[in-house]
Amino acid sequence: MDVTVETLDKLERKITLTLPVNVIQSEVDSRLKRLARTVKMDGFRPGKVPMTVVAQRYGYSVHYEVMNDKVGEAFAQAANEAKLRVAGQPKITEKEESPEGQLAFDAVFEVFPEVKIGDLTTAEVEKISTEVTDAAIDKTLDILRKQRRTYAQRPQDAAAQEGDRVTVDFEGKIDGETFQGGKADDFQVLLGEGQMLKEFEDAVRGMKAGESKTFPLAFPADYHGKDVAGKQADFMVTVKKIEAANLPDVDDALAKSLGIADGTVEALRTDIRKNLEREVKFRLLARNKQAVMDALVGKAELDLPKSSVQSEVDRLVEGARADLKQRGIKDADKAPIPEELFRPQAERRVRLGLVVAELVRTNNLQAKPEQVKAHVEELAASYEKPAEVVRWYFSDRQRLGEVEAIVIENNVTDFVLSQAKVVEKTVSFDELMGQQGQG
Description:
This protein is an alpha+beta fold. It has helices at 21-36, 51-81, 134-147, 198-204, 252-257, 265-298, 306-326, 343-363, 369-380, 386-394, 397-419, 429-434, and strands at residues 5-7, 12-20, 86-94, 102-111, 116-117, 124-129, 150-153, 165-174, 177-190, 212-218, 232-246, 300-301, 421-426.
């Protein structure tokens, strides 16, 4: 086939396709004959419906199917012969004038861009590292102890202090009117845990059972309750009960309650360290991978296929709708979600995907089977029955594909770090654990 490709824009192309009318009609006739053997119509026995009746009933839809199939085949063959990497779906329209005995179509589409990646040795990447310290283990132990704390009522004359569980009645008013969510009875407050606004906890701290107090409270401008955000309220609070927290000792009994086989504090601390080191490893990998991807995008030159960006925008919008639906938002399917909110994110994802694909292709960074297996085993190690988790991953091609994608990203990260100027930086355990990964 002699294929002529016309360039319309940077990535936009046009191909004219022609199909012989007799080939299309022959295929239509063939499909109608096959259909006639099985079609059921009132007044006729199966397989005995006249072809004229079958053609009258089904001719248009069969002709439409054949046209779609044949045009699609012709486009795929033409794109293949022209060695084009097509991005998205082509827009195909029939031409008003065609050669005798032919039907002509214009196929307008985009191609994937040429990706130029600059000299990675001039890229600078900050690579962070973190050490799991004894202090981090102690903090984790404190969290585990708090999860298993018990409470005992304090004497009537005891004042509420940090760590206590205080049962209160409260009512808040703005301009003399009680607002929604501003009143509760028998409400439990854990002092010092940030459960309530600081002004509220400060007011309760030092009070005794049976006491009441009024105090002003200014809601922050960014408060999650939009009706009260930035407003001043007057609160009245009455303390009904104060309970002191009792934390379990760090001993062998605690270790056994946490499922430590040896049942010793030393084994408990070793288990905590192992789990923290695994979590730190994944967080460091995510953080350093993000820095690498930022550097990689900064070194790449390419045009973005509009169709690919739009497809990614559509996916992000659908994801947002699904999230709204999961939260129980009424009519989430019809909620107005501006596409432009997602366009910068979509453009970055498409750009990054094309750059990573080019780097993988030119440097053989594909995921090797042994890498995929090792990553799955590492993921499974934190579960009670790792072998079952491994089987779960390998039993589903889609799940395994997700792991392969992660391994490829890890390969790209290692490759770029081996090329770039790496700036090593140590961050504290708390700083790393407080960071949120970005996609």
